[in-house]
Amino acid sequence: MRQRDPEVVTALTHRPWSLSRLGDGTPRFSSPWKHYWMTLMDVLLDWAHHHVLWRFCGISAFLMQKNFVSLDYVQFWAQRGVEVVAWTINTDVEKAYFQKVLRINYITDSLVGDCEPHF
């Protein structure tokens, strides 16, 4: 799609460990074999996002859950010509950090003030 029109924005969205764990970090499955299988799938999915899918899909942005975004991570993607967008940033302190320190865009549930986190 971007080969036809480079102005189109495409992105992948990723939250590490999303297959094996819930948003608050608790295991998604009580069965040990399901949990370990999904943990392995999480590792493969993470590898695929960072080494195969981004190139295959021709993305211009990578949407990453805020807890996994760092300056090194932003630079990793910048070297590949991909912009990082963090989600979901809901406090004024987080918004200032992502804007002024990391200098990246973010997705939020609240334009004014703080908002409770959602998992």
UniProtKB/TrEMBL annotation:
Coiled-coil-forming residues are none
Domain (GP-PDE) spans 1-119
Q: According to the UniProt entry, where is the signal peptide?
A: none
Recorded hits in PROSITE patterns, A to Z, give:
GP_PDE (PS51704)
**One cellular component GO annotation, for this chain's record?**
plasma membrane
Q: GO terms for molecular function, please? A: glycerophosphodiester phosphodiesterase activity
Q: What InterPro entries has UniProt attached to this entry?
A: GP_PDE_dom (IPR030395), PLC-like_Pdiesterase_TIM-brl (IPR017946)
Single GO biological process annotation from the record = phospholipid metabolic process
Cross-referenced PANTHER family, in alphabetical order? GLYCEROPHOSPHODIESTER PHOSPHODIESTERASE 1
The similarity comment for this entry is:
Belongs to the glycerophosphoryl diester phosphodiesterase family.
- UniProt name for this protein: Glycerophosphodiester phosphodiesterase 1
